[in-house]
Amino acid sequence: MRVLLCPDKFAGTLPAPEVAAAVADGWRSVADGDDLLIRPLADGGPGFVEVLAEALGGRRVTVSTVDPLGRPAAGEILLTVDGATAYLESAQACGLHLLSTAERDPKTTTSYGLGLLVTAAVESGARTVVIGLGGSATNDAGAGMLAALGATALDATGAALPYGGAALASVDALDGAPRLRGARLVAATDVDNPLLGLHGASNVFGPQKGADRADVLLLDAALERFAAVLERDLPGCPTGLDALPGGGAAGGLGAAILALGGACESGIGLVTRATRLDAALDTADLVITGEGSFDHQSLRGKVVAGVAGAARDRGVPCVVVAGQVSTGRREAASAGVTDAYSLVEHFGGEHAGGLDAALSRPADGLRELGARLARQWSR
């Protein structure tokens, strides 16, 4: 039997390669004769560069940048062999994992560090810069990134605004032109949410970053004002920026990239092409994918959705392993998911310490689930 293991990371606990390895270890403990194909994936969030480096080769360059609070940090750029394309991930400079719970405040966090990474990529000579979006702590619609590139948000007095999404409530103009040297930006997005509204960056993702209801309303209004300024002051910015798919990714970074004449592409689509996942799917008898939380957002352009849909198209069963599962069976089945397994439930349920165990012992749980899956599926 040939089993394809292609999970995403379990955010905050295990990177994708370790998730795949743990499930594989468990499976082999029961069915060592089966052929396991391991293809860790990413959708644009943390792990994007690592997965692509494994698939594409090229050269990884360490770059000095800053975190969402402006503190020194290090990021990586992956340059293709010919140097024409650079890959980077916003989470290395804007990631939620870089902040403690007490530090998380999307009103003040900035994407400036991502702008430093983009600058380094452009200065390396790359003509295309592909930016993985996801897992961000910011909600500034890329205002910080634009400032690092040379385009500063100003208030009505002509003063530069402080960093952070809340300050954009006072934005009046954009001063300066982004220094891209003709390079084209591509956003590899993990979601297709627009910038504004009920399904926008602030409403959907703001609470995950520390925003309360009042913060969400403030931030959504601030980003609406900033989007209007971008359309007016940034040459080539598309109209209707606030409603474009992917604009709400990573706290509105997708919208900033679109405003610069860039494009939004499916992160999982880009990664599956790079890892030649289709060829592996063509020969698989079973597909196992997963992520930390399998919920309604999982079916909006994330790894699980991409993998399950591709497996369904080939008539191959697809099983999801996750830290938590909140997606209904009918909704999951319509996306191509045959069954889903939760670490929390495996460890006895949330009220029996299952959540704590899933967070503290994810590798143990995944090995046990891998063995359980082998007993159920191996033939």
Give the key terms:
Glycerate kinase, domain 2, Rossmann fold, 37% helix, 13 strands, six-stranded mixed β-sheet, 379 residues, 2 domains, five-stranded parallel β-sheet, 15 helices, alpha/beta
Structural class designation: alpha/beta
- Proportion of beta-strand residues: 15-25%
Number of domains: 2
The largest pleated sheet is described as:
6 strands, mixed
What is the number of helical segments per DSSP (H or I, 4+ residues)?
A: 15
Helix content: 25-40%
Rounded average pLDDT = 95
Low-confidence stretches: none
Judging by the overall fold, what is the CATH architecture of the largest domain?
A: Alpha-Beta Complex
DSSP summary, beta strand count? 13
Taking the alpha carbons of the first and last residues, their distance comes to 7 Å
The CATH C-level class name of the largest domain: Alpha Beta
Report the C-alpha radius of gyration, rounded: 21 Å
What is the ordering of alpha helices and beta strands? EHEHEEEHHEHEEEHHHEHHEHEHEHHH
What is the topology, as strand order, of the major beta sheet? 3-4-5-6-9-10
Shape: globular
CATH topology of the largest domain: the name is Glycerate kinase, domain 2
Q: In oligomeric terms, what are we looking at?
A: single chain
What would you say this structure looks like, in words?
- By secondary structure, this protein is α/β, with parallel strands linked by helices.
- About 35% of the residues lie in helices and about 20% in strands.
- The chain is built from 15 helices and 13 strands.
- It has helices at about 15-30, 50-55, 90-95, 110-125, 145-150, 200-205, 215-235, 250-260, 265-275, 275-280, 305-315, 330-335, 345, 355-360, 360-375; strands at about 1-5, 35-40, 60-65, 70-80, 85-90, 130-135, 150-155, 175, 185-190, 265, 285-295, 320-325, 340.
- Helix 1 (about 15-30) packs across helix 15 (about 360-375) and helix 7 (about 215-235) runs parallel beside helix 8 (about 250-260).
- The model has no long low-confidence stretch (mean pLDDT about 95).
